[in-house]
């Protein structure tokens, strides 16, 4: 049974602040209680690289990465298959930046969008939902990461920055890195790792439970 321990009379959603930015969070219907706070460090890191860039936030959900990028990017596009998520992404951008024409949201399938897109972006965020929740799905998940990253690396502008993540607990850090390596090799482009990211200290990893290190990320420079 799901329910509130306290504060349920406040309603199903609220506006919260993270590093000065406002976000509407739907506690009841949103994924992971409505907001992925485990990505706040990576969102802050993104802001360091988005200056003047054309940013594509894939699997953008309610626009967490998009809001941070809007602080200094040339344009920001948010893509998510959920129309309600992209509507909230638009709301979150508007709360922080008003009716800014630099942002546009697309409620559509991520793979279809990437297959049709041109070389329009020089910063891409790939933050998909868990491709594998059980060990039996591991091989299929790794194939998905290879395919997704290969498309992004192939189509990103020269000198582009790719933020790519896996939140699948059965995908190890080495598995994920190997998948991205194969994707890069298949494109033939030169790729360098700038950062290796993970979950923040308030999402600790139990040394006896390696699957608790569920969030893995790489920040790549694509020549």
What does this 3D model show about the protein?
This protein has 223 residues and is an alpha/beta fold. It has one domain: Vaccinia Virus protein VP39 (Rossmann fold, 3-Layer(aba) Sandwich), CATH 3.40.50.150. Helix content is 32%, strand content 24%. The protein is built from six helices and nine strands. Strands 5-4-3-6-7-9-8 form a seven-stranded mixed sheet, sandwiched between helices. Strands 1-2 form a two-stranded antiparallel ribbon. A hairpin with a 2-residue loop joins strand 1 and strand 2. Helix 5 packs across helix 6. The longest helix has 18 residues. The chain is globular, with a radius of gyration of 17 Å. The mean pLDDT is 90.
Brief account:
The protein has helices at residues 40-49, 64-69, 83-97, 110-116, 138-155, 173-187, and strands spanning 13-18, 21-26, 54-58, 75-80, 103-107, 123-126, 160-166, 191-198, 216-222. By secondary structure, the chain is α/β, with parallel strands linked by helices. The model has no long low-confidence stretch (mean pLDDT 90).
Task: Give keywords.
7-stranded mixed sheet; two-stranded antiparallel sheet; single chain; Rossmann fold; alpha/beta; 223 residues; globular; 6 helices; 24% strand
CATH H-tier superfamily: Vaccinia Virus protein VP39
Overall, the morphology is globular
Give the helix/strand class.
alpha/beta
Uncertain spans, ≥5 residues at pLDDT below 50?
Answer: none
Our count of domains comes out at 1
Biggest pleated sheet: 7 strands, mixed
Quote the CATH topology.
Answer: Rossmann fold
Q: End-to-end distance, in Å?
A: 50 Å
Count all strands and give the number.
9
Beta-strand portion reads: 15-25%
Relative helix content: 25-40%
Query: Please, what is the average pLDDT?
Result: 90
**Largest beta sheet: strand ordering:** 5-4-3-6-7-9-8
Oligomer state of the chains in this structure: single chain
Total helical elements = 6
CATH architecture: 3-Layer(aba) Sandwich
Rg from alpha-carbon coordinates: 17 Å
